[in-house]
Amino acid sequence: MSTRRIINRLAIGGICTAVALVASGCGAGGPAATSGSAGSNTVNVLVEAGGHAELTGVAEQCKKDAGVDVNFVELPYDGMFNRLSSEFSSGNVSFDVAALDSVWLPSFKDAVQPIDELFTDEAKKDIFPALVKEANVDGHFIGMPAWTNAEIILYRKDLFEDAKNKADFKAKYGYDLAAPTTWKQYQDISAFFTKDGMYGTDVKGGVETEWLAHVLQAGSPMVLDGDKVVIDNAAHKEALDFYTSLVKDAPSGAAQVDWAAAQNLFNQGKTAMTRFWAHAYRQIPKDSAVAGKVGAAPMIAGSAGVGGVPGPWYLTVPKATKKTEAAKKFVKCAYDYNDKGIESNLGLAARISAFQKYQDQPGYESFKPLIETLNGKATATRPATEKWQQIVDTVLVPMLQKAVAGGDSATLLADAKKQIEALLK
Question: Which segment of the chain is annotated as a signal peptide (predicted)?
Answer without folding.
Answer: 1-28
